[in-house]
TrEMBL record:
Gene3D superfamilies: Jelly Rolls. Pfam families: cNMP_binding. This is Crp/Fnr family transcriptional regulator. Residues 34-117 form the Cyclic nucleotide-binding domain.
Length: 193
């Protein structure tokens, strides 16, 4: 678990010393959850940002009719949380649950801030990660506004083909905002097995 996090950080901070990494790792808490278990529920205090070591999770909300709307998937090397509540130390509006048995490393906002103050390299690391996250979110919003559902399906398939092997089709449909039947038509037309 620790070697994977070290490799992840070293994608951005190439001169990370073993001593600095051991110090960084000491600020994380390992968490294991089984398939279908919650990592976070709406109404919970948001204590952590989670880095997915192993497994697959999803963040979602439900509307008044009980329909699920998936905001994000998280696979290995992805970060996930209710960031609005995380940074404000508030209450979650979203759920995060495990699609597969999952191992996560979690960090509190206090420890996040502490590492940023004490290690400029970690401040840089999280600035880069935040930038990538912001760009991905903006692309998703623009895709929702500009593209047809089938174009969004093809884009997701092209970007993250492994999702289609790991995530049930009903969840892909909830992420794309289409019915399961519509997703099946897209799937048939794409020729993906």
């Amino acid at each position: 678990m620790s070697l994977l996090l070290k490799n992840h950080i070293q994608e951005i901070i190439t001169d990370l010393s073993d001593e600095d990494f051991d110090y960084i790792l000491g600020h994380f808490v390992p968490i294991k959850r089984q398939k279908h278990q919650f990592v976070l529920q709406a109404g919970d205090e948001v204590k952590y940002s989670y880095w997915v070591v192993k497994g697959c999770v999803r963040s979602y909300v439900t509307d008044d009719a009980g329909k699920e709307h998936i905001l994000q998937f998280g696979m290995e090397n992805w970060w996930i949380s209710d960031y609005s509540a995380y940074y404000s130390k508030g209450i979650s509006d979203i759920y995060i649950s495990c699609i597969e048995d999952s191992e996560l490393l979690a960090i509190t906002v206090d420890n996040y801030d502490k590492l940023c103050r004490e290690l400029r390299s970690m401040e840089h690391f999280w600035a880069v990660k935040s930038k990538f996250g912001y760009v991905a979110l903006q692309k998703r919003i623009l895709s929702l506004l500009r593209n047809t559902a089938e174009e969004r399906y093809n884009q997701l398939l092209s970007q993250y083909p492994q999702l289609f092997q790991r995530v049930p089709k009903k969840m892909i449909a909830a992420y794309l905002g289409v019915s399961r039947e519509t997703l099946s038509r897209f799937h048939a037309r794409s020729g993906v097995m």
